[in-house]
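Notes from the 1:1 (GR / supervisor)

We went over the backlog. Supervisor wanted to see one worked example end to end before approving the batch request, so GR pasted a single chain during the call. The sequence is below; no edits were made to it. Supervisor asked that the structure be written out right there so they could see what the output format looks like.
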Amino acid sequence: MEKHNVDVFEDSDENLKSVDLEDAPLLCGYGGTHTGVISSWYDFAVLLIVFPVCHWGNNGHKGRWIGLGGIVMAVGSLVCALPHWMAAPYIPSENVHNESDFGQCTIRDEKQCTPASMSSWLNPYFWMFILGQTLHGFGSTPLFSIGTTFIDENVSQKASPVYLAIHAVLTTLGPVVGLFVGGFLLNLHDDFDRPDRYEMNSSDPRWVGAWWVGFLISSLAALIIAFPILAFARELPEAKRHRAKDVNQCHAINADLHKKSSKDTKKLPEIIWVGGMLKMIAICHLIALIFITGLLMHCPKRNFVGVNMPYGNDLHPEDHQPPSIKSPCNSQCHCSSEWNPICDRKTGRIFYSACYAGCTDKTENSNGASWSSCSCISNTTSSLLSSSLLDAVKDDSDSEDVHSGYCSLDCGYNTYILMITIFITTVSSFAAGIPSQQIMLRVVPFDQRTLALGINWTFLRLLGFIPGGILFGVVIDTTCLQWGKSCGKSTSCLVYDPSKLSWTITALAIVCKLLSILATIIGYMTYRPSDLDKGASVASSDSHGALHLVVNDDRNDQPIQSIHM
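Structure output shown during the call:
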């Protein structure tokens, strides 16, 4: 039970990290590439240590290895949370300069830009996340390498797939827990623990949630779970009894099975054969491939004036330069680059900030902040609306139709379709995991299973997780419509193109899934059991009758045994 608690914690921790890292870059000016590197560094750390852990841990006390790994993970989570206390309280930059300046259009001197003293890649907070992810990788390696064989060698071979399936289910439950907890925590203010925090509403686009609390929860949970695991014996009480009955299972069913027990054969599932398992894996990936297209579902594109649509006085951007947030209507405002969008409810247009909308007056009410006397909104409205409607919006700047934040967006059924297709895709992808794991555990000698898992994890990192995180981060960055600016340098992305983002992510996911299917087909076509000619026939009986399996028994001087599954 403790082992499965570790499974839930590990995957909850991974998704807490992924959710937490969504808000942390906003404080440090990171883009998708930075976040991708931080995320992939976990897998790089696993790659560095997986073989030493598999080599020494396989012959050592597996419970202690897993428990110590949990402690290392706890330290890693604590390291990732430290930047919260090391950094100053989060205050939007427009409020740092002048408490009476709310980002509206005013005639003021240009603010002097103070360049960052170092590159974002040398930022100490970035390297603290790298250190934390390194410790996460080191600590989780025993769980997914030694932990799998620890389960397999302490239960019967018949029960092993069941326990490993429970292991897979709980590692799937972990991300769900992590996402829900992480999403809830991001609704808390980043500095809720500080009395001098800057008060703002969670609907404010500049809002930063309590990203660091998830790391603290992960750290505490790891410590609580690690100590019971450390108290485990080298092997569980039932392990010797299972080893006395089990044999090292084989690659395929004996060639004479059809002759000796054709009636019993009809009752056996096809996946007893490795080839059948490979077929099941391919089918699962194919189902996932079909439903991956659900990622094409997205919400309508928002209209950002100066970003993906022009101001009202420039209705033909194809004849001019691309849209710009600067316009004659805000040329006297001396606006800063602070991202603080406002919405014109009448037209559904969003402006970069109240300053770039030419607004001069701000009103606070129960519904938040509203703006008036907005020169750019009057120009945009008069250009976009017919003359019959113009009189109705002439006094728009005196109404509460211009408010801080984004305009409401109706995604229709797209959200539900996306959730259903992602669920089916995830289930299908994980369904391929158990037969893959069983093949790997059964086609290698009994004492080399941990090494086989280590090699498997190495290829997963080298070919999947490490380049995948970075690649997806770079691809996401290519769909950015507007980057934040600081002293003329790009920081994090402010606005994405939802259509382009959905198409590029879907295309990349389809390519990855096609590669998985191709690898499975190659495995099916090239698989040749090496021991069919010299293998021994092992009589085994279950509720359906006798079963003769060809085994590759690597235990010297032991007679082949009849097992009951």
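Supervisor's comment: The longest strand covers residues 489-496.
Batch request approved.
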